[in-house]
């Protein structure tokens, strides 16, 4: 291999171009994973639609379909833009890296950016929704808990719009260069996801402790296992976003590869959550009642609930709201029980 074949570019520029091209390849692989998850979720959800529950199932179907369409458009746009930079306009002054940095606003790039912002808004919205579902039943009113995340979500959406306008608008307000909306936009979304990840994990850890204390470590593991916490809290997305933001702040050329892969990581993380919900393993409003009625005992798993055994073998549970539940089981037949509230 002759060194004369190498473009007359700096090592940093060459590294950025390598990262871009390899990022496009890895993004396509991640897209394949997302396609598989989408059809698995779609199949499970479509089977569950009935006249009574369609109001719960249909929004998830619409959500994953819109997200999948946006992800597909993004991959197609990425492939086309990569082709323009490396093949059709490879003699652009400065090479493909310069082409990428200076061709903001062309139609194919604008479509990709819009899809990316919409996908990020959908992803952030889903994790906020999951946080709200998991915190329902808490002693603190749920609107107090969700106020700050909802404000951050709104700010992130506004900042995403400002970022798009900065990339595509000719207005002096956006092209003056006084404000770079990239860091605030990515930073808000990252901060939101890290906060949501932490509060969801803390909530599930608290549930796990309460359930294990009252019923033993074998109960509720499908809702509070480590894998469940990672999926429910979208920790995959938060971790990847953190790495992306660090690379951007450090001005590392590999940042380009991460930004191309980010939308597909978002889709994978969100589809994993929907898949758990479709399987009936995701935490929902009915989770507490399902665990309460599971054998061999009536269970109270509200935050702050506790129970104690009586000499006759029955159990009494007192909830944080002051409601006492008394379960009396016959020794000869564990399937029959008397429950007094």
Keyphrases for this structure?
single chain, Rhopdopsin 7-helix transmembrane proteins, membrane, four-stranded antiparallel sheet, 12 helices, 68% helix, elongated, disordered C terminus, alpha+beta, 2 domains, 341 residues
**What CATH first level of the largest domain would be assigned?**
Mainly Alpha
Number of domain units:
2
Report the structural category. Answer: alpha+beta
CATH architecture of the largest domain: Up-down Bundle
Briefly note the CATH topology name of the largest domain: Rhopdopsin 7-helix transmembrane proteins
Biggest sheet descriptor: 4 strands, antiparallel
| H/I helix tally | 12
Order of helices and strands: HHHHHHHHHHHHEEEE
Strand order of the largest sheet: 1-2-3-4
Rg, Cα atoms, Å: 25 Å
Chain-averaged pLDDT: 76
Blueprint of the fold:
Elements: H1 11-48, H2 54-88, H3 95-102, H4 107-135, H5 142-168, H6 172-175, H7 182-215, H8 221-224, H9 226-232, H10 235-249, H11 255-279, H12 287-292, E1 306-309, E2 315-318, E3 324-330, E4 333-340
Helix pairs in contact: 1-2, 1-11, 2-3, 2-4, 2-11, 4-5, 4-7, 4-11, 5-7, 7-10, 10-11
């Amino acid at each position: 291999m002759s060194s004369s074949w190498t473009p007359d570019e700096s090592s940093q520029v060459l590294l950025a171009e390598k990262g871009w091209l390899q990022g496009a390849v890895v993004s396509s692989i991640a897209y394949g994973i997302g396609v598989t998850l989408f059809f698995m979720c779609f199949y499970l959800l479509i089977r569950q639609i009935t006249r009574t529950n369609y109001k719960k199932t249909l929004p998830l179907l619409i959500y994953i379909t819109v997200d999948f369409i946006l992800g597909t458009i993004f991959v197609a746009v990425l492939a086309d833009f990569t082709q323009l930079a490396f093949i059709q306009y490879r003699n652009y002054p400065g090479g493909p890296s310069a082409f990428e940095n200076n061709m903001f606003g062309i139609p194919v790039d604008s479509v990709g950016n819009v899809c990316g912002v919409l996908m990020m808004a959908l992803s952030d919205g889903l994790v906020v929704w999951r946080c709200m579902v998991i915190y329902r039943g808490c002693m603190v009113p749920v609107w107090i808990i969700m106020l700050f995340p909802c404000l951050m979500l709104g700010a992130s959406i506004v900042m995403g719009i400002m970022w798009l306008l900065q990339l595509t608008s000719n207005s002096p307000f956006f092209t003056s260069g006084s404000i770079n909306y990239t860091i605030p936009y990515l930073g808000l979304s990252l901060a939101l996801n890290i906060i949501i990840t932490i509060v969801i994990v803390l909530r599930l850890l608290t549930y796990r402790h309460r359930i294990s204390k009252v019923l033993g470590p074998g109960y509720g593991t499908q809702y509070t296992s480590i894998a469940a916490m990672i999926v429910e809290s979208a920790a995959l997305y938060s971790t990847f976003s953190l790495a992306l933001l660090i690379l951007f702040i450090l001005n590392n050329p590999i940042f380009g590869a991460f930004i191309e892969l980010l939308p597909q990581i978002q889709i994978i993380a969100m589809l994993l959550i929907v898949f758990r919900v479709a399987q009936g393993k995701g935490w929902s409003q009915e989770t507490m009642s399902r665990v309460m009625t599971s054998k061999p005992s009536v269970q109270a798993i509200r935050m702050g609930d506790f129970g104690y055994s009586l000499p006759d073998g029955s159990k009494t549970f007192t909830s944080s709201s002051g409601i006492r539940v008394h379960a009396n089981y016959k020794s000869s037949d564990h399937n029959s029980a008397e429950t007094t509230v």
